[in-house]
Structures are given as structure tokens and as C-alpha cells.
Specification:
With 294 residues, the protein is of the alpha+beta class. The protein contains nine helices and 13 strands. A hairpin with a 2-residue loop joins strand 10 and strand 11.
Length: 294
């Protein structure tokens, strides 16, 4: 078909000109219209990419975390307007007005990861416990009063993951698997640190200024729990989208709350619970993700 021809040509061009190694899947509903991989899964060992490879998807993780919060709400474990301090003990007074709703919509006033002292040179590369990460978050200053402005914050989604762990008394990984991955048959998805050995995992690389490819810098994902530590495949992402928008993850009325438009600071872009919303030229729900090598 014309679509397949055009997308194949596009994939060949970005591989040749941008050194893209990866995969594209296009679907309408559950029907896959195009799925093709290009380049190498391992450049060192000359292993070709093929459809179904596993990749880190970084901040797309947030759509799963928001759904876990919504499931907990449906199970009467929490309410969206609950104060965060009611679920995470020991947070300082400056966080006293923070609500779960504000964490979900990036209106908590919390900054992004780089507000953590020494984040990029040191703390993004070492394993930290939940207690250690929460202690680091306690030290940061809010950059706006809660509820007043949107500031994209992975730290806020880390706190959501901690709340999920506290209300279910289990690890985020286990809860994600039980409440979403197993129920929706996402067999090639999971979360966790880079110490995990994952069959079918695609290696990450960087294209540097002299047009050469190098192994992506090391990054530890312990500080990105619930915010950016998911790995998955294109087919599992399609299953996830279909399940979410067909009300298999939450009830329809809960999904509608998650997709309500909230403060974003951009008239062309609205913020839902994790999901971003565009209304022109047609309504679109999406979330991107990027990390070292992916």
C-alpha cells in the first residue's frame, strides 16, 4: 500500500541520514497497518533489529503510573485530592498543600530531576533507595505555589510511585505487574533498574558530533521509579493504548477524569493525568519519552 511504501522510505531515509536504529509501528485501533524495524539491536555484535525488540521508553512510564493511581482511587485506597503528606510521612511543611491531583498534572510546584544537587554528575549514576530519593526530594524548593503553574516534574511522579507502594504495601514493580501488565497481557514490559537482565533488550547508542556512534552513557534508573523506568515493546505499547482508551484499565468515568484538560501554560496544549492533550487540528492524546540511548 501507499502507506507502507511511504513509511518504509521514511525509515530508510532516517536510518541513512540520522543513523536511526529502531522500529516504527502504526495502527488504527487494534489493526497494525505498518510495523518494521531497521538497523542493529547490537552494533558491536552486528545483531539486526527486528519487530518486537524491547526498548526503554522513559517518561511514557508516567501514563502507567497515573493509571495505577486511578486504579487505587477506584479501589478506595486514595482520593485524587488527598494531601501527599497523608500518604508519605515526614515530608516538610513546605509540601503541606501538595495534592495527588497536583502531582498528576505537574502543578505541584516541584522542579524536574536536575534540581537534585549533583544529579547529573553523580546521583543519576548510582543506585539510591526509596528513602534516599525521598530525602533528596525533601531538600528541593518549590518553584511555584502548588496549583498555580505547570512545571514538568519527574520528581512528582516518583512521589506518586511511593504513594502507590505505601497504599498497597508492595514494590512498584510488583504492583505494576499485577494491576496492569498481567491484566493487559503485556508480556514484554516491566520496570526497574539497569541491573536487570532482560531478554530481547535493544542496546542504546548516541550519535556524536563527528557522526560516529558511541555506547550511550550509563544511567541508573532508581531515581526514576514511576517516572521513567519502564521498558516495553511496540506491540505492548499498542496493547496498552488500546486497553486504556477502551476502558479495560479503569472505568470509563475514571478515564474521563484522567483526560480532563488542566492548566498547561500553553493554549494549544492541555495537561491531563500524565497524558498531554492537543485539540487542533484534531483531538490527540499522547506522551513522549527519551533517555540515554532511547
Amino acid at each position: 500500500s501507499r502507506l507502507q511504501t511511504d513509511l518504509s522510505s521514511y525509515l530508510n531515509v532516517i536510518h541513512a541520514k540520522k543513523r536511526f536504529h529502531g522500529e516504527i509501528l502504526v495502527a488504527k485501533g487494534e489493526d497494525v497497518l505498518f510495523n518494521k524495524a531497521i538497523g542493529l539491536s547490537s552494533i558491536e555484535d552486528n545483531i539486526p533489529n527486528k519487530p518486537g525488540g524491547i526498548y526503554r521508553v522513559a517518561s511514557i512510564t508516567k501514563t502507567f503510573t497515573a493509571s495505577l493511581i486511578a486504579i487505587a482511587h477506584e479501589e478506595s485506597k486514595l482520593n485524587f485530592e488527598d494531601k501527599v503528606r497523608g500518604h508519605i510521612k515526614g515530608l516538610p511543611d513546605k509540601f503541606g498543600d501538595l495534592t495527588i491531583h497536583q502531582l498528576l498534572t505537574h502543578t505541584s510546584g516541584l522542579p524536574h530531576n536536575e534540581a537534585i544537587e549533583g544529579y547529573w554528575p553523580v546521583k543519576s549514576k548510582i543506585h539510591l533507595s526509596t528513602e534516599q530519593v525521598v530525602d533528596e526530594i525533601k531538600k528541593v524548593d518549590l518553584i511555584s505555589p502548588p496549583g498555580k503553574e505547570r512545571h514538568y516534574s519527574s520528581l512528582g511522579y516518583y512521589l506518586l510511585a511511593v504513594i502507590i507502594e505505601n497504599v498497597y504495601q508492595d514494590t512498584f514493580q510488583n504492583i505494576l505487574k499485577a494491576k496492569i501488565l498481567d491484566r493487559q497481557h503485556l508480556k514484554y514490559s516491566g520496570s526497574g533498574d539497569v541491573t536487570n537482565l532482560i531478554h530481547g533488550f535493544t542496546s542504546g547508542y548516541h550519535l556524536v558530533n563527528d557522526d560516529s556512534i558511541v555506547v550511550a552513557p550509563y544511567r541508573n534508573y532508581s531515581m526514576l521509579k514511576g517516572a521513567g523506568d519502564l521498558y516495553t515493546s511496540s506491540v505492548d505499547l499498542l496493547k496498552w493504548n488500546v486497553a486504556f482508551f477502551s476502558d479495560k484499565v479503569t472505568k470509563a468515568k475514571t478515564k474521563d477524569v484522567m483526560l480532563m484538560s488542566h492548566l498547561s501554560g500553553n493554549p494549544l496544549l492541555q495537561q491531563g493525568y500524565a497524558w498531554l492533550i492537543e485539540n487542533e487540528p484534531r483531538r490527540k492524546y499522547f506522551h513522549g519519552g527519551g533517555t540515554w540511548g532511547y
